[in-house]
Design a protein that fits this description.
Blueprint (H helix, E strand, L loop, with lengths): L3 E6 L2 E10 L4 H15 L3 E12 L1 H17 L2 E5 L3 H10 L7 E2 L3
Parallel strand pairs: 2-3, 3-4, 4-5
Antiparallel strand pairs: 1-2
């Protein structure tokens, strides 16, 4: 099963992550995200985590790595609509100080 779906809106890439982000799935998710980011060169990248049921530290690493990739191509990165449990992990790790987290209706 593909854990990432993407949609381009203007020069904004929205990456929808589905299911769990752990050490078993992070590599596949990273490869798909990087493929989309590097082929489309968006100005803004939004990682939508509204359908993520579980995330461990592998997910934090995944997001930080995409932040580095986005920075390398001159794009802004933002996490949108994380579930409560995912948001809690991100806030505890201080990730929100580096990558903005937004709740969008």
């Amino acid at each position: 099963m593909m854990n990432v779906q993407s949609k381009m809106e203007g020069n904004q890439l929205i990456l929808y992550v589905l299911g769990e982000i752990d050490h078993h799935t992070a590599k596949e998710i990273r490869k798909e995200m990087d493929k989309q980011i590097l082929s489309l060169h968006p100005k803004e990248i939004k990682i939508n985590l509204s359908s993520v049921s579980f995330m461990d530290s592998s997910g934090l690493g995944l997001i930080m790595g995409r932040y580095a990739t986005a920075t390398d191509i001159g794009a802004a990165l933002k996490v949108i609509n994380p579930t409560d449990s995912v948001a809690r992990i991100m806030l505890m790790a201080g990730l929100d100080k580096i990558v903005p987290i937004e709740r969008i209706k």
